[in-house]
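Okay, is this right?
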Amino acid sequence: AFFWLLSLLAASLLWFVSVQLSGREDAALLQLGAAAAVLLQELCRFACFKILKKVDEGLATLSEDGRSPISLRQMAYVSGLSFGIISGAFSIINILVDSAGPGTVGIHGDSPYYFITSAFLTMALVLLHTFWGVIFFDACERRHAGGLGLVVGSHLLTSGLTFLNPWYEASLGPIFILTLCTGLWAFGTAGGSFHNVLKCLSCKGGQD
């Protein structure tokens, strides 16, 4: 979460400098700012990976059996979840403040589904960051540039789709499809398989 906050600080400083130098705040500058924020988030995710990798090696050195008590996959999951939670908190907090009034959504032609779609979008972002963390760490560990590129590309795509709002059908639908595909990808990356799911379900059924 701290690394995501660092990326937010860097993106805010970059936005402030850009506005001061250009003297404008149009849509094109906003889109460039969003892209820069995504790249800074992924850069901080990489920095988080490098530090946790060092921590993992240090824990392995201190342990009696030469193994770290926490696997890199567990660190990837926790890191991604932390990115998602803090990102979701910052994306929804202003919306929650607006929901307290004094305005009422929908009176002047605004969508009455603004709050519910914002909640679903925040949920998708939390899940996506969790999945991206698992995939990103695995790609860094295997030195797989394609996986890193797909994570960064899907992050940029998700950010770009939000600019279609308030046309929620065009933004929320593709984002949830992307979330599902990324979740399946992360599941496979973490070693999961359909056979293991069936085996897990059958074990639970036998206990009942």
